[in-house]
Each structure stands twice: as structure tokens, then as C-alpha cells.
Amino acid sequence: MTKRAYNFNAGPAALPLEVLEQAQEQFVEYKGIGMSIMEISHRSKEYEQVNDETQQLIKELLELPEGYKVLFMQGGASTQFTMLAMNLLTAGKTGSYVMSGAWAEKAYQEAQLLGDVAIAASLREGGLLNLPSISELKLPENSAYLHITSNETIAGTQFTAFPDTGSLPLIADMSSDILSRKFDASKFAMIYAGAQKNLGPSGVTVVIVREDLFKDAPKKIPTMLSYSTYLKNNSLYNTPPVYSVYMVNLVLKWIKKNGGLAAMEVRNREKAALIYNTIDDSRGFYEGLAEKADRSLMNITFKLQSEELEKKFLKEAVEQGFVGLGGHRSVGHLRASTYNAVPYESCKALADFMLHFQKNIG
């Protein structure tokens, strides 16, 4: 194999090399059945075993108590924005949202199309990119749920703690930081995540839901937009994204083999520190875009002193084998996404490149 790129893409993102090699070995024939797993029926015992095992691995890694179900769906987190409101925003209820950035706003805007919504907490005006305070939430008495986006990939901000909402269902979009650290998943009535950042390839969305959450959902919801359909049919009502679920299965086994969420968190903090320290020690040559207290371990956003200098940085980075360091098109500047599968060595290489680039320019 030729040298692999230093992959800092925001999503689809890096996958563990070990996982890719295992998938390569099983690509043409899966466990002696004479077919690829992409060719078999989703009703087959082979796929049902993958489906059930993958659910169980997620429950185990998150240390979920009884009463939760793991679903495999399609359409990414963006479809969940709509489905959530469609299933929970019944008459007389309000969806409450913590407005932490672009992805939280998209979720809020979709819910607006379907019912009453309220902003429970907002970003602070001015200064560096930041997160709202969740210590004093403004929740309408008729709130159906509180929605939070745990990590904002565009801004490079991440919540370090989550609110205690008591009996009010707490729901999180964790697309960009799920399984990257330890947290109390039992606080949440529902967690959803597109797989293409920390869980596997694009094509499948993982939804972790407390089984009683949708007991009062409206009956007149299109079949494929009703969570009840997936709950009743173990995510097998129609053909699921078989290969994507299989890849998630391999990634989960890799996480478990490498120490679970506690070990992932240690690795992720070490990786992020390499780059953040390079930014902070550069005497203003590099500048972080997010407030230090709100910095993400998954998406490191920063800038240089001019657009021209940033273009030069990106050009030289590509020449050195770095991929995905451009910021989101809506914000610009620079971003390094350091998800679970991004090796420490890649982050060390980026930190070294940043130092070298600064020295040459300086």
C-alpha cells in the first residue's frame, strides 16, 4: 500500500486502517457464505446477527440501562430533525432547542415547519465562537423535549456537560462526537448520529431511544417517518443500509478492543492538545476560532492572518499529504477534524507541519 493521506476530513471521515483491512478481507466473501455481505438478504440469519450484535455493542459501550433500543435508519441527522418534531410535537406542545450553532439552527428550523418551537438558550453575542450557558435554561411549561447539539462541527465547539432535565426528555444530535468520550447516556431519552464521523461510513444513522418515548406519538405519520415502525421491526421493516451497518459493527469492535470510551477520550485529548498547543504557542501566527472553554476535541478551527496566507498553507499542506484542512464553506479559514479513527501520528505530523510553515513564513 502507498502511504496513506493524513485525513482530517469533517465527514465522511477517517476510518481505522485495521477496520478497512478487515473489510477488505471480507469484501468478496463474508464468513464462508460464498457472497459479499452486500449481496445477502437483510432477512438472512447472517445479517440479522450483524444487526443484533451491532445494537448490543452500542449499548455496551454507552453502558445503557434496560429500556433503550438502538435503531439503524437512513437520511442522516438531517432527516432526524424532521422526524423528531413529527413524532413528538403534538398539539399544545413546544419543542425547546439550545441554539449552539449551525447544526442546532438547522434542527430548530425543521421543527418550525411542523409545530411550536422555543429557544431555551442562545449563543453569546460577539467575541470568539462560543456555546450557550445551559445553567439557566428558559423552558416553556408545555415543552415536549429539550434538544441539544453536543458538538458543532462548523464552529469547532463542544459541550463538556449536559443539563439535567428531570422528566423532560433530553434529546441530542451527537453526530460528530458520539463514542469519543465517557458520558452518562442514561440522561438522554434519545441520541442520534450520522455514522460518517465516528461510527463508520455514510449511509446509516444510529438512533438510540428510550422505548417509552414515542408511546403517545400521532398515529397518522407516514410509515417510514414513524419511529414506531423501526421499534416494532428491529430496524428491518425495509432494506437497511446493510454494508454501512456491517462497517459500524467493525468500528465498534475496534473501539472496544482499544479500551472503550475511556481510552478513546484519553487519545482524543492527547491528539487535540498537540494542535491546540501549537496554535496557542504560535504568538498569534495561528489563532483559534473558538473560546478555549468551549473548544471541541473533534473539530479544531483556526485561522491565519490573511486569506492569502491560508491559501498558501492549504496548498503546501496538500503537497505534504494532508487532506480536509479547509474550513466549512460557510465560515472559511481552517479546520482539522480529529475523530476517533484519526491516528495520533497524523496529529503529530500536522503540528510539525504547522511549526515548519510558521518558521518558513516568519
Overview of this structure, please?
The protein has 362 residues and is α/β, with parallel strands linked by helices. Helix content is 35%, strand content 16%. It contains nine helices and 14 strands. It has helices spanning 17-25, 45-62, 76-88, 102-112, 227-232, 242-257, 260-280, 307-319, 344-361, and strands at residues 6-7, 68-73, 94-98, 116-121, 143-149, 151-152, 157-158, 170-173, 190-194, 205-210, 287-288, 299-303, 322-323, 334-337. A seven-stranded mixed beta sheet has the order 2-10-9-8-5-3-4, with helices on both faces. Strands 11-12-14 form a three-stranded antiparallel beta sheet, covered by helices on one side. It has a two-stranded parallel sheet with strand order 1-13. The longest helix has 21 residues, at 260-280. The mean pLDDT is 97.
Concise summary:
This protein is of the alpha/beta class and 362 residues long. The chain is built from 9 helices and 14 strands. The protein has a 7-stranded mixed sheet with strand order 2-10-9-8-5-3-4, with helices on both faces.
